[in-house]
Design a protein that fits this description.
By secondary structure, the chain is an alpha+beta fold. It folds into three domains: 6-56, no CATH class; 77-142, ATP-grasp fold, A domain (Dna Ligase, domain 1, 2-Layer Sandwich); 146-281, D-amino Acid Aminotransferase, Chain A, domain 1 (2-Layer Sandwich), CATH 3.30.470. Helix content is 35%, strand content 21%. It has helices spanning 26-42, 52-55, 60-67, 85-88, 91-97, 123-131, 191-202, 204-208, 210-223, 263-281, and strands spanning 19-20, 48-49, 73-75, 78-82, 104-108, 118-120, 137-142, 153-161, 164-173, 227-234, 240-246. The strands form three sheets. Strands 3-11-10-8-9 form a five-stranded mixed beta sheet, with helices on both faces. A four-stranded antiparallel beta sheet has the order 4-7-5-6. A hairpin with a 2-residue loop joins β8 (153-161) and β9 (164-173). The radius of gyration is 20 Å and the shape is globular.
Length: 282
């Protein structure tokens, strides 16, 4: 465990040929990322995977600030703030003065997999949500309505691994907060949804088309990480609407147990990560 610069002053670290940085969330581990960066600078000849300072740039608000101005990219307005007494003195007006319109999404910083995620439809609902979070740091996120086929919500994911794009999932849902746990309730009951996902994971370049795929390729260079994930959809206007982009996304075969067509593309992801390690060691 890395904490309070301990690895900078510890003389009994074993010899190592490669550093794999698995610290990923700057909301909760910024100090650790900075320590790892100092450690790597002291050992310039040791190869590493995932520059900690580049990982530090993948918080939701920093992604909004640096990606929202890209042509054909839409990253919802995302502002980080602390819920304090000043904010709670008329929170709805203050949020509206920031430029937000309803619905507004609220989530605590440093949380994932939909935890703490709320869609506030009205000023009253927003006020109640903020009052429940007094003393916490949150993200305010502008909700963007991007229906798929007029009534569904869609989330596609790719991993960037060593400069290449690997499709992960193409999840279609009837609920706005699209997460893997919902699959068995919607996708498993609709063959056409699974056919769409099969097409996507088989060849996401062909599925997305040249322009959206080219944007994904641009993001690899902008983010600069050896491994990270991107959750996104394509709007009716053809924009790449990015929900999340960071190296915090885990790779697992949980969904592949039921959706067997995911096994091969998931194995390709595992193989790509292993090749990256082998390449660094070589």
């Amino acid at each position: 465990m890395v904490a309070e610069d301990n690895i900078l002053n510890y003389s009994e670290l074993p010899a190592h040929a490669l550093v794999i940085n698995s610290v990923t969330d700057p909301d909760v581990e910024m100090g650790v990322l900075e320590t790892i960066s100092k450690f790597l600078k002291r050992q310039p000849n040791i190869p590493f995977i995932n520059d900690p300072l580049k990982a530090a740039e993948t918080s939701r608000d920093r992604n909004y600030q640096r990606l929202n101005k890209m042509e054909d990219v839409l990253f919802s307005t995302t502002i980080r703030l602390t819920v304090d007494e000043e904010l709670l003195a008329g929170p709805a007006k203050k949020v509206e003065d920031m430029g937000f319109t309803y619905p507004v999404l609220v989530r605590n910083t440093g949380t994932h997999t939909g935890q703490t995620f709320v869609r506030a439809e009205t000023p009253k609902a927003l006020t109640e949500t903020l009052e429940e979070r007094l003393g916490t740091e949150i993200y305010l996120i502008q909700f963007v309505e991007a229906f798929y086929r007029g009534k569904y919500f869609r989330k596609m994911r790719v991993f960037f691994i060593d400069g290449e794009v690997y499709p992960v999932v193409h999840h279609i849902d009837d609920f706005w907060n699209v997460h893997g746990g919902n699959r068995k309730e919607v996708m498993a009951e609709h063959d056409w949804m699974m056919e769409k996902e099969k097409a996507y994971v088989s060849d996401c370049h062909a599925y997305l088309g040249d322009e959206p795929y080219a944007i994904l390729r641009q993001l690899i260079d902008i983010i600069g990480l050896d491994f990270c994930g991107v959750d996104f959809t394509i709007t009716d206007e053809g924009k790449l609407l990015i929900f999340e982009l960071n190296p915090t996304m885990r790779h697992s075969f949980d969904h592949a147990r039921k959706f067997k067509y995911l096994i091969e593309p998931h194995r390709n992801i595992t193989a790509a990560f292993n090749r990256m390690i082998e390449n660094r060691l070589a």
